[in-house]
Specification:
With 226 residues, the chain is of the alpha+beta class. The protein contains nine helices and four strands. It folds into two domains: 107 residues, Glutaredoxin; 105 residues, Glutathione S-transferase Yfyf (Class Pi), Chain A, domain 2 (Up-down Bundle). β3 and β4 form a beta hairpin. α1 packs parallel to α3 and α1 packs across α6. The two termini are 31 Å apart.
Length: 226
């Protein structure tokens, strides 16, 4: 059994999707980020960085793993799935995983902050992060013109890592127009039953509703002040 600490964010959904794809038994514990629970001592004992997601693997002497990319790698290695066994295949998956961890996530995350949450709208800053995110989307699109999945012919944790961020493009004020291969990949992944289930752990608020959107923004603003 795995205890999974998470919230309704792209990084959280990366892990919930992987757990569902791998069929691993887990117990989800939702963290209310705006309350600051992730900064409490009990949680920083699991993740010193005070962020979600994190897991505790009770089948491995209560081994704790934090950082979403590290969790994906741990789960893939634990099960022998979603990661090739040959060195070149593993390297390809790791390269695209690091692309998400070092580029796509941070850039789109900042696009979210300045487009949605920051009290002062600074057009030059918003443009900077939106344009950089779109540049990264273009790299994904070109890669997916060459192969059905990011690391080649097989679905992997690299796809799982990038998907929730790309799926949330609208929240950063972005569009996938003109990125046909990326759109096709997104739709194929959305059709996977494990992806559909993973996106309900925890349930996502419908941000198309004004009240939900307002509450989500207010909660995010509180979190950024912590």
């Amino acid at each position: 059994m795995i205890t999974f600490y998470t919230a309704a964010t792209p990084n959280g959904y990366k892990v919930s999707i992987a757990l569902e794809e791998l069929g691993l038994p887990y117990e989800m514990k939702a963290i209310e980020l705006s309350s600051g629970a992730q900064k409490e001592d009990w949680f920083t004992a699991i993740n010193p960085n005070g962020r979600i997601p994190a897991i505790v693997d009770h089948d491995a002497d209560d081994f704790a793993v934090f950082e979403s990319g590290a969790i994906l790698m741990y789960l893939a290695e634990k099960t022998g799935q979603l990661m090739p066994q040959d060195s070149k295949g593993r390297s390809l998956v790791t390269q695209w995983l690091m692309f998400q961890m070092g580029g796509l996530g941070p850039m789109q995350g900042q696009a979210n902050v300045f487009y949605r949450y920051f009290p002062e709208k600074i057009p030059a800053v918003i443009d900077r992060y939106q344009n950089e995110t779109l540049r990264l989307y273009g790299i994904l699109d070109r890669r997916l013109a060459e192969s059905p999945y990011l690391a080649g012919d097989a679905y992997s944790i690299a796809d799982i890592a990038c998907f929730p961020w790309v799926m949330a493009h609208g929240w950063a004020g972005l569009t996938l127009d003109g990125l046909d291969h990326l759109q096709d990949w997104t739709e194929r992944l959305k059709a996977r039953p494990a992806v559909q289930k993973g996106l309900t752990v925890p349930p996502r608020p419908d941000l198309n509703k004004d009240d939900n959107s307002k509450k989500f923004v207010e909660a995010a603003q509180k979190m950024l002040q912590r």
